[in-house]
Amino acid sequence: MAINSAGLQPGQGADEENKQLNTLPSDVVDVLSSVSLRCVNCSAVYPALEAGPSSSFAPRYRCECGGVLDVEMAFRLPKEQYSSARTQKDDPVFFDFDAGPEDAPSAGASWRQLFDERASAPPIWPISTDKQLLDASGVWRYRELILPAPEQYVVTRPEGNTGLYPVGIENCGPGRAGHRQIGLYAGLERFFLKHEGENPTGSFKDRGMTVGVTMALMMGAKAVACASTGNTSASLASYAAQAGLRGIVFLPAGNVAGGKLAQSLAYGATTVQIRGDFDDAMRLVEQVCNELGIYLLNSLNPFRVEGQKAIGFEVLQQLDWQAPDWLVLPAGNLGNTSAIGKAFRQAYQLGLISNMPRIASIQAAGANPFYRSFTQNFASYEPVQADTVATAIKIGNPVSYTRARRSIEESDGIVEQVSDDEILAAKAIIDRAGIGCEPASAATLAGARKLVARGVIKRDERVVGILTGNLLKDSKTGIPQEVGGTVVDATFDAVRKVLAE
User: Fold this and answer.
1) Cβ contacts of 480 within 8 Å, gap of 6 or more
2) Distance from chain centroid for Cα 337
3) Which residues are annotated as modified residue N6-(pyridoxal phosphate)lysine in the UniProt record (predicted)?
């Protein structure tokens, strides 16, 4: 009998898929029964495990009002942390989600101790236990604050643990004269670049995908899908393959860099190129997932966004829990702005840090609906027809707009736009410093430079910039046409002439 792209028999719809796949193990039910989903628009609350037809469970991605959802749960310190935490009577320890740091001063120290102990024990390969693998991950190290999934379901490579490079005029040490050029370009004395291109598939998307695919496995899914400009699809394809799930990716035809497309194909994902842009692909994948019972893994999925919080937690830990003044990052579908803002808020509430960093989201001028809304004090929002060389942020109607707006407002942040010329100029600086990044990542440096020039970011403030993707993701854009260097005869004189130029 033929099977369609979702792994369903002909005529089998979402109801049958839910009934077939979602008889959940008790350990999964125990975890997810304490998790809820809150609408960012109207504050309606839904259980993470929502009953579907025939006593099954169905994933929910939107509120009845159409708004996106946010994960809420009580945070629990593991038993070994009891002695150093101020506890209630509950077992394990619970801390109120809305509490400020004044309500949990000792809890903050206990959380820091827990995460620092996990980070200080480097794994010995091959890793022999699930716990060692989780502790080695720069996402699952913070599992109590992200998703306390049963260890046997976690799909990790592991991800995270990406470099935080000092590139400022003053904080760039000896032997890094090239890196200091980045600080000089930005006009910042204490500047760090966090390179998420060092993740397993070359982008920050792995942070969310490890959690999203883990949730898919916990929910009994057989297929996962996303719309993508390239990075999400590469990540989904890799993690789905590892988990033994079918990966399905929808891409805007002709608008995905070759390196990213190659990853999706190599990892075995069913790759569908849509005649349209990313927003068309997003609209279509949401419909396909709802109709065919496929588990959706775009940032519309609130659990995937939870994984991206780990970027914020890891930055804070790498800075010894001393929060920076600013965090600057590219802004496309706005999942990172949402997730990192939430991570900072939760870290502050739990007493992990004593002050909230401000967030600066940088959009390409040709794909700037968030920036346009910000300039109107978020009084209105209008999608745009996106057009930019930075294909990773070439999105005209970002799914996470409402969540990202909250992050900007809560952090007293800002949204800026930069031109393609500014992006490519910044990319050249990062590349020639020996770090390298894809074009969208360079929006971070271009935006930081612009905000320093405007006086929004002060020269002596401590600033962290996020590079979201690896240079090899889009190795052609912004590279001079004479790729491959100068061709000469195989003689010493010919080489000497070139070197003298």
Assistant:
1) none
2) 9
3) 205
Adjacency order of strands within the sheet including 69-73: 45-47, 35-39, 69-73
Q: What tens digit of pLDDT does each residue of 1-45 get?
A: 233 334 433 344 444 444 434 578 889 988 998 899 999 999 999
Query: Element (H or E) spanning 359, and its range?
Result: strand 358-364
For the four alpha carbons of 361, 365, 369 and 372, in that order, the dihedral sign comes to positive
Q: Are 417 and 362 in contact (CB under 8 A)?
A: yes
For residue 123, how many other CB atoms are within 10 A of its CB? 14
Cα dist from 245 to 7, 121, 151, 336, whole Å: 10, 31, 18, 25
In CATH, the number for domain 164-201+308-474 is: 3.40.50.1100
Does residue 344 contact residue 357 with C-beta atoms inside 8 Å? yes
CA distance 465 to 452: 13
Determine the distance from the C-alpha atom of residue 412 to the mean position of all C-alpha atoms in its chain, rounded to a whole number.
Answer: 21
Cα distance between residue 263 and residue 233, in whole Å: 8
Helix (H, G, I), strand (E, B) or coil at 166: strand
Reduced to 3 states (helix: H, G, I; strand: E, B; else coil), residue 114 is helix
Amino acid at 234: A
Q: How far apart are CA 293 and CA 8, in angstroms?
A: 9
Q: What 3-state class would DSSP assign to 420?
A: helix
Burial 84-109 (b: 16+ CB within 10 A, else e): ebebeeeeebebeeeeebeebeebbb
| Six-digit token string for 46 | 């839904």
Domain boundaries, the chain: 35-72, 164-201+308-474
d(Cα 227, Cα 283) in Å, to the nearest integer?
9
